[in-house]
Every structure is written in C-alpha cells, then in structure tokens.
Backbone:
C-alpha cells in the first residue's frame, strides 16, 4: 500500500496526548498513537513502561488523566470495560479473565449467553453454544473435542485462542492483546500469531503487546515503543529492521538495569552526590552513550 493511500484512510483509533497518573506515579505521559483498520500495531517496551496502562485506558478499565481517545473519528469516554466493548474494543488482558473450572462454552459466551424459549421459559441454548464454539475454534485450527471440558484443562495457547475467538465472534473492531504469547512455547505462540494475522486480514485493528521481537516482527505493520510512560514514537515496519527493533528494546533494558544498580549505590552510600559520577563511569565502561 502506498503512503498516500494510507494517509487517506481514517484511523480506527486515535490516541492524542494521553497521560495517566496514579497519585504521584506517572504511568503515561503525552502518548500519541494511531491505529488503522487491517493493521497490527505492536506496543513494545520494558516492564513498567506503561504498556498495560495504555491498553487499560483504551479498554475502559482506567480513565485517562489527560488526553483524548477517538474511535472512528469520534471522541469517546469509557466509564467501564463494557462501554469499550460496546464500541467494538475487545481486550484480552495480560492476566486472562477466564474461569478455569468453567467449560469452554460457558467461558466463550460469558455475559452474552444465547438463550432459547421465551419469557420465564428462557434457558441457555447449550446446543447452539457448543456448535458455535466448535466451529469458531475450528477456524483457528483448534479441534475442541469436548466443548464442555473445563477451560483450565486446555493449553495456554488454546486458552488465549478461546479469548481471541470470542472477541472476533462478537464483532470486535479492535482487538487488544496484552502479552498473549509471553507464557507460551514456540508452537503455541505460532498458533496465536497466526490468529493475529487472520484478525488483521478480516479488517480488525490489532494492538499487540509483547516483549519478544521475534513474535512482534513477523505480524506487525507498525511499532510504538514506550519507555517509562513516554512514547519513543511510532515506526512503520519498512522504517525498521528486526535488529533495530531489538536494539531499541535491549538498549532500554540495559539502561534500566544500570540505573537500578546506580540507585542501589546511592542508597548504600547514603550520599546522592556520588551518583552522577558513578553513572557516567559505568555508562562509559559498558559502552553506552551518555
Ligand atoms: N493501578 C496502579 N496503581 C499505581 N501504579 C500503577 C498502577 N498500574 C500501573 N502502575 C504503575 O505504572 C507503571 C506502568 O505499569 P504497566 O502499565 O503495568 O507497565 P507494563 O505493562 O509496560 O509493564 C509502573 O510503574 C506501575 O507500577
Ligand atoms: Mg504489562
């Protein structure tokens, strides 16, 4: 796709100058990001960079302290995750909201149970629900032999897929995934990545959070890199090589480790004045630009 064609399209999500404070903690500051339909935006950044906070704000869990969120050109204010869901934003959070003892079918339809019958005779339509779950999971290449089996008995990758399939089935426009592959083995991660590609092909906008550049690079169209609540900017894939992405992420991690060490020095010395000099020396020794 050419640059001009992309510019003419309207973004599905536009986040402008977003900040989020928790008391004195600045979790996000002045973050701006646009995501287009049919594209995967990868959110990269170290632990504590603000990735989860950004998507929780986007999905109605947190209210922004400052800034604006627009969906399809309209400013939105979400008072709850349900508001975001109604606007077509489906989020699979880092700590999956799944009931391990509940069946696959019940989890899939949780909060949106299909019913049959009328008035006081309305009951959960189990036959429809089970057929649907089997079909939807089949589309992702997962063979659910028994939809009444507890979700807790499925593998991590399959559980992620239940959550994703559910979002797509209920008509999400935006799919947000917070580290869906981080606890998975190579094969299972591949299943989830393939499904991200499928969701994108269906025209959904995907916001994909990961620590792993090898998971991010194959599926991403663009990268937004967060560091301590601030955005390093958004880069198109064509602007960055895999190595450059890796460098940005690894560089950040190294600096963080370094700074944590320096803080420890200052604490044990009980003398803040030593810190800047120590910092410079260590940085030079490690070959990090000051
Ligand atoms: N509910 C909260 N209350 C206070 N501080 C929070 C809360 N949620 C996140 N933070 C802080 O905000 C920062 C960003 O956290 P988070 O968004 O979880 O980072 P990431 O997902 O990139 O690892 C961290 O310093 C974290 O401690
Ligand atoms: Mg997180």
Residues:
């Amino acid at each position: 796709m050419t640059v001009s064609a992309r510019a003419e399209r309207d973004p599905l999500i536009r986040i402008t100058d977003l900040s989020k404070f928790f008391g004195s903690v600045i979790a996000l500051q002045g973050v701006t990001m646009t995501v287009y339909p049919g594209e995967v935006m990868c959110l990269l950044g170290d632990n504590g960079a603000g990735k989860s906070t950004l998507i929780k704000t986007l999905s109605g869990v947190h209210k922004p302290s400052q800034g604006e969120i627009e969906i399809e050109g309209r400013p939105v204010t979400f008072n709850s995750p349900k508001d975001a869901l109604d606007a077509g934003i489906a989020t699979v959070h880092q700590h999956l909201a799944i009931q391990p003892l509940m069946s696959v079918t019940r989890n899939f339809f949780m909060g949106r149970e299909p019913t049959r019958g009328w008035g006081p005779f309305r009951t959960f339509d189990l036959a429809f629900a089970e057929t649907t779950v089997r079909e939807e999971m089949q589309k992702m290449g997962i063979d659910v032999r028994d939809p009444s089996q507890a979700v807790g008995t499925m593998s991590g990758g399959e559980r992620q897929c239940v959550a994703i399939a559910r979002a797509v089935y209920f008509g999400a426009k935006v799919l947000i995934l917070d580290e869906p592959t981080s606890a998975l083995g190579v094969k299972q991660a591949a299943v989830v990545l393939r499904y991200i590609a499928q969701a994108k092909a269906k025209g959904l906008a995907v916001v994909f959070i990961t620590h792993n550049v090898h998971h991010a690079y194959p599926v991403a169209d663009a990268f937004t890199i967060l560091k301590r609540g601030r955005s390093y900017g958004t880069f198109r894939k064509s602007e960055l090589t895999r190595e450059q992405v890796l460098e940005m992420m690894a560089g950040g991690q190294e600096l963080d480790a370094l700074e944590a060490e320096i803080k420890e020095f200052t604490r044990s010395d009980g003398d803040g004045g030593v810190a800047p000099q120590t910092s410079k020396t260590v940085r030079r020794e490690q070959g990090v630009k000051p």
